[in-house]
Each structure stands twice: as structure tokens, then as C-alpha cells.
Amino acid sequence: MNSKKENRGITLITLAVTIVVILILAGVTLDVTLGENGILNKSKEAADRMNNLVKEDETELNELLNELNETMDSNWNSNIEIPEENLDLTYTEDGVPIPAGFYYVGGTKSEGVVISDNVEDKNKGINHEIAKILLGNQFVWIPVENKSEFKRYNNYFDGSLNSFDVLTISEEPSSYATEEERREYSDMIQSVYNNKGFYIGRYEAGIKSNMERTEQSYGVDEEVVIKQGAYVYNYIGWADTEETTNQLGGAVQKSREMYTGKKGYNVKSCLVYGVQWDAIMAFIDPKYKTSTCSSTSFVATSRGKGNFTGKLAVTGSNSNYSIKNIYDLGGNVMEWTMETRTGFGMTNCRFYRGVQFTSSARDCVIPVTGIERIVDSGQTRYEKVGNIGFRIALYL
After folding, report:
1. Residues 67 and 195 in one domain
2. Fewer beta carbons within 10 angstroms: which end of the chain, N or C?
């Protein structure tokens, strides 16, 4: 009997001790596992560190791959030049490029998209009354969808082709052109091919100052504007001197200075080339390309389509003198171009296009295409007269 009681007592003590030990061990285990420095927290920290290391490795790997791809692209495409200034073009809904520094004013590709270099003109519209209040210089897109058709159409007379030989003796670029002109012509042609078009001044070149130029304006340097209601920039030669190797000055230099190399604009400006003038004619009347224009076509006759009052008018003076949103292609002043006359010893002559404001032209069938390509020895490139101005073109 006593033996049994002693055994029972030992068992209870052992059990109590065991329970106490278990509780102590459980507390230690919980602390080790769940405590601030416990296994779970340590494991989480280790996992976070591992994830961060993996992300850092991925970032470094991606950077390395990007550098490798750039190097490979550079090597593979070293013969392809992507002009930096063309990377930030935007486009209209019908695909006309809007260069940096310019804003869409209105119009469509078929009727003539108008842009301005003043943000206040954005989306204002293109009708004649609105054009009066626009603030910026304006240009119109001339589409050239087929590069094989971007060429000078020599022999044009009264809107149709004929064998009037004097019109065949023109060329671009000139055989005696400077390197700058040859480079400009090549760049312009390539730009038209790449972008399928170019921009032309909506108006004849005007002057910013509110004072009409006179014969006494020879050599007076005016700021150029391409806006409605400006006095025409006339009494300016194609160049300033006969010497072809000197600084050109004149309409050529004024055209280039407007945008070429100016910060904020990804275009180059130039005096309109003959090939560009012909592209304008083909845009106005596609039959121009096949010499099938009707006798009443805008490109065949300027009658009623320009200022022939005998007195020079401001730019864009009449809505009837506009077609495809371009003003005064016929009438007002003739316009210097980069097209060159060759032959007969005429090494210093340049063609001008369009027709002038003289009253003698009012009742004549005179083509916008430019019968004035028939120049004589008097129209040398440095001559400054009141009936000749110029028009500026832009290429991307």
C-alpha cells in the first residue's frame, strides 16, 4: 500500500515538472520564432534582401542588354542617317507633318494645310477674315506623293507645253552654283522624297515695318514676315552683287536666315526653287503634269486671279487671289527663284516666276506658271526693282 502511494507521488511531481519545462520551452520557442529577432522575421529580412539583390541584378542586366542593342544597331545601321530634327514631328489626321516650332492652323491635305509659328494661331481656321488676325508667319503644305513627278516642267507656256526653245535653257542647281547651293538643293530634294512634300509661304515675303519700300530701299535690311496685310519685300535682288563667290545677300540670304539653324525649329528655309514652283502648279491642277490643263485653269491664266491694278497691293489683299490657301501666285509681284538661266553668256541671271501688278497685264492671258521665265539680259540676279519680290519655302 505504501509503495503504491510513493509511486503515485513521484509521477505527479514528474508530470508537473514536465509541464513546467514544456511551458518554458514553448515560451523560448515562440520568442525564437516570433520575436523581434525571431526566425520568421530573420527569414523575411533574408527574403527581402534576396529579392532586392535579384532586382538589382535584373536592372544591371537590362542596362547591359540596352547598351549591347544600341551598339549592335549602330553597327548594323551605320549607313542610315535619321536627322535629329525630324524625330519630334507631329502629324495631322491626313498625314501632313507639322514641324517643331509650328502649329496647325487649319485645312486638309487636299485643300492645303496651313501652319503658323505662333501658338496663338493654333486651330484658328483658314478663311480670309480669320487670316487677317493671325499672328504668326504662315506656310502651306505642298504634297509630293510620287517623287518621279517632283521635277521641273520646262517648256511651259500659257499653261501648256510647247517647243518655245528659250524655256529649255534653265537648270537646277546652277552649273556655277556655290557648294552651299548644291548642298541645299540636295538636302531639299531628299527631304521632299522622305516626307512626301514641303511647305511654301502662304504669302509673298513681306516686311515687318509698316512702311512701303521704294527705290531708296536698296540695301535696307528688313525683317521678313509671311503674313496677310504686309507690305511686299520688293526692291531686293536675287543676290547683292554679281560676284558668285561672295556672301550672297539678297532674297537668297533673307530666305535662308528666316529659320535655317534657328533654335526651336526643325525646318530649313530657302528661296523657292523652280522644281518647287512646278510642284505647286501640279498641286493646284494635277493636269499640269501631263500638259492637259484647260485654258481657264488657274495655272494657265492669271486673269481675275491676281492684282493687276497697276499699283502694288499688300500681301493677301483679296480672297479671290488665293487658291489652295496660297495667295498672290499670279499678280502683285513676280518672284525670284533659284532656277538658273544658262546660255547666251547669261551666267548671272536667275528666273523669276508669276506675273506682276502692271495694268498692261490685266486683260492678258498670263500664266501663273511664269511666262517671266523668259528673261533677258536686263534681269540680272542683283537687279533691284519694284515689281520683283520673293517667296520662301520650308523643308524638313
Report:
1. no
2. N
The pLDDT of residue 136 is 98
- Please say whether the beta carbons of 180 and 257 come within 8 A: no
- Model pLDDT, residue 69: 53
- Residue 356 amino acid letter: Q
**Which residues in the chain belong to E strands, given as ranges?**
90-91, 97-98, 103-106, 114-116, 138-143, 156-157, 160-161, 170-171, 197-201, 206-207, 224-225, 231-232, 268-271, 322-323, 326-327, 334-341, 350-353, 388-390, 392-395
94-98, 174-178, 308-312, range with the lowest pLDDT: 174-178
Cell of 284: 493646284
Chain position carrying cell 538643293: 185
Reading the block at residue 19, the C-alpha cell is 509541464
Structural domains in the chain (count): 2
Write out the three cell numbers for 194: 522622305
Q: Residue 313: CA atoms inside 13 Å, Cβ hemisphere, count?
A: 23
pLDDT at 7: 47
